[in-house]
Write a structure and sequence with these properties.
- A hairpin with an 8-residue loop joins strand 6 (111-115) and strand 7 (124-127).
- The strands form two sheets. Strands 5-4-3-6-7 form a five-stranded antiparallel beta sheet, with no helix packed on it. A two-stranded antiparallel ribbon has the order 1-2.
- It is globular, with a radius of gyration of 16 Å.
- The protein folds into two domains: 11-54; 58-127, OB fold (Dihydrolipoamide Acetyltransferase, E2P) (Beta Barrel).
- It is built from one helix and seven strands.
- It is mainly beta and 129 residues long.
- The longest helix has 8 residues, at 11-18.
- The mean pLDDT is 92.
- The structure holds zinc ion.
- Zinc ion binds next to loops.
């Protein structure tokens, strides 16, 4: 018996694929709602016609954690860094990292904007001042 369940696109592959659009999120062509992570069917209505649409790149901080101890050698140069859940203006929440802000200055609900960094395959967020 084989498993025919479609495999959701991994977020890193998604961000590479939509990079020419700027910041874009998967959007259902049937109900018009955005979602994230990328998946083969809309989580709101079940339709399978999904397109990536450019979005504002704005959002607010939903939650965060400051990482002081690197989980591996690779991250030692980065600590302390901020892992965040960002509520995008269009609705979906993304796990990401905050940059250009000191850990003590981070506040839940603060306004954020997307920031692409050549060193990161995924979009980062920074304060929208
Ligand atoms: Zn839908």
């Amino acid at each position: 018996m084989s498993d025919t369940t479609p495999t959701p696109m991994q977020p890193n592959a998604y961000w590479e694929a939509i990079r020419p659009l700027g910041f874009a999120l998967p959007c259902c062509e049937a109900c018009g709602k955005f979602h994230f992570y990328p998946r083969p069917a809309c989580p709101h209505c079940g339709a399978t016609s999904i397109a990536s649409r450019p979005v504002s790149g704005r959002g607010t901080l939903y939650s965060h954690s400051v990482v002081y101890r690197a989980p591996s050698e690779r991250f030692k140069k980065d600590v302390p860094y901020i892992v965040a859940i960002v509520a995008t203006a269009e609705g979906p929440h993304l796990m990401t990292r905050l940059v250009n802000v000191a850990p003590d200055d981070v506040r839940t609900g603060m306004r954020l904007r997307v920031r692409w960094d050549a060193a990161s395959p995924e979009p980062l967020f920074e304060p929208d001042v």
